[in-house]
Design brief:
The chain has 472 residues and is of the alpha/beta class. It is 43% helix and 15% strand. α2 packs across α8 and α4 crosses α5.
Length: 472
């Protein structure tokens, strides 16, 4: 017997600011991985990536009615969670007995909220094996609470009581997972800024050992970084390159360069197979050296993404980033010498900061002068230490999850208002991008149009656009 499982990115989120600004269409890798594990176990799976397909609620419900799944699984992040709840509600209005499960970083920590919004079961944390065990159990016993209690990594209701089962330990050997089920995704529709350039998103590792106070990665994936083998990663890339006729790869790992051995094995695999790809990846200023930078560039890396976060060493220490400003200066200098595009990401508006501290971060960004700088405003995502701090000090002023995009200030600080933080974000972009030197450099490279439109669109990560230009 097999179960028909519909996995979905909820409809309606393409209307959210997050999507409008970024013109972002990235595949739901998490769903594709869960789908691959379910398919391998013999279940029938369909993925509906609503925003990418341009599917609205009504069309989505028609799909549910015609395909008649046994279970619907919905994924959500904080700004998209209301749309996910609306979808759950629509499903329950159509068929009260059709089970709805939900996963993702938001509901992993806010599972009670989800269970009060038409969700039957929350899959907490890493989803593959938890979902598989859940589906296998439901196939035999339905939503029997005594059976569900034995599955690690869930939250559900038994009567009025919220049950949170034991945490599931992280998957130690990621190579035992099949590659993500990309055949279930609209692969030809993942573009950037509406340009018809296909990209393949790949994740080589999960988890992060650093546990920065504002970032949910290490609280969702675990405080331990787990790499897949270089061979498995390159197998997946090679297959995707052949199948989808593109050589542009974006690594979605937070930290690609932490495992030196992995990086060099990965580059060796590319070389041995004569795989010509363009890729971008995230790094840290304390895990990369000039030699690695050159090696990455020589093998097709077109952009490196660094979280510098702040121009104040005190703030860097407080958030637990464990880097120094000197390291940042040195690494950004190397990137210029190696001539590799590099993005610096900076966060303003941590609760303890003053307006001056925020201005200093922007000035530090200008001193580093990366190819692009991305500024966001500190957002206390559920599950992070920053969230618990903001909660206990009553700093959060805007509880509309849709605004939690890092482009809108949702909390005040001890010495600044929410409105001041918002103003500072705009100031940061204008200050950084209206510098004559920057504009001249962009003009020389014929990129000014992109900048202007990005600034118009409220300015955020278009470093990938640059990266893709290289691939054209």
């Amino acid at each position: 017997m097999s179960v028909k499982v519909l996995l979905a990115v909820p409809p309606g989120i393409d209307k959210l600011e997050l999507y409008k600004v970024l013109g972002l269409k990235a595949p739901p890798l998490g769903l594709a991985w869960i789908a691959a594990v379910l398919e391998r176990a013999g279940h029938k799976v369909r993925i509906i990536d609503s925003p990418t397909e341009g599917i609205d609620q009504k069309t989505f419900m028609n799909e549910v009615k015609s395909w008649q799944p046994d279970v619907v699984g919905i994924t959500a992040i904080t700004p998209t969670v209301y749309k996910a709840y609306e979808t759950a509600k629509a499903i329950k209005e159509y068929d009260r007995d059709l089970p709805v499960i939900m996963g993702g970083p938001h509901v992993t920590f806010m599972y009670e909220e989800a269970l009060n919004n038409n969700v039957d079961v929350v899959v907490r944390g890493e989803g593959e094996y938890t979902t598989l065990e859940l589906i296998n159990t439901m196939e035999k016993y339905g939503l029997d609470p005594t059976r569900l209690r034995t599955i690690r990594g869930l939250a559900f209701k038994d009567g009025d009581q919220v049950i949170r089962t034991q945490d599931r330990p992280p998957i130690r050997n990621l190579d035992e997972l099949p590659p993500p089920a990309r055949h279930l995704l609209p692969m030809d529709k993942y573009t950037l800024f509406g340009k018809p350039i296909r990209i393949v998103h790949v994740m080589a590792s999960r988890g992060c050992p650093y546990g920065c106070s504002f970032c949910s990665t290490s609280y969702f994936w675990g405080r331990m970084i787990r790499y897949r083998s270089a061979k498995a990663v390159v197998d997946e890339i090679e297959d995707a390159v052949n199948r989808y006729k593109t050589n542009i790869i974006v690594f979605t790992d937070d930290e690609f360069t932490l495992g030196k051995r992995f990086v060099y094995e990965f580059l060796r695999e590319l070389e041995e197979r004569k795989l010509d790809i363009n890729f971008s990846c995230g790094s840290r200023v304390d895990t990369i050296d000039k030699e690695m930078m050159i090696a990455l560039k020589n093998h097709g890396c077109t952009a490196l993404y660094f979280g510098v976060e702040s121009g104040s060493q005190d703030t860097i220490n407080k958030i637990g980033k464990r880097i120094t400003l000197e390291q940042a200066v040195k690494v950004f200098q190397w990137a210029k010498e190696v001539k590799i595009d590099h993005v610096g990401s900076f966060v303003i508006g941590f609760p303890w900061e003053s307006i001056d501290d925020m201005k200093n971060t922007v000035r530090f960004a200008m001193k580093l002068d990366p190819t692009y700088a991305q500024f966001t405003v500190a957002t206390p995502y559920p599950g992070t230490p920053l969230y618990y701090q903001a909660l206990s000090d009553n700093l959060i002023e805007d509880w509309n999850w849709e605004h939690w995009t890092t482009l809108k200030a949702v909390m005040r600080g001890y010495r600044f208002t929410k409105e001041q933080a918002q103003k500072m974000l705009q100031w940061a972009y204008v200050k950084y991008y209206s510098r004559l030197g920057f504009l001249v450099r962009e003009l020389i490279h014929g990129r000014l149009g992109t900048i202007i439109s990005a600034i118009k669109n409220s300015l955020v990560p278009w470093f990938t656009e640059r990266l893709l230009r290289r691939g054209e």
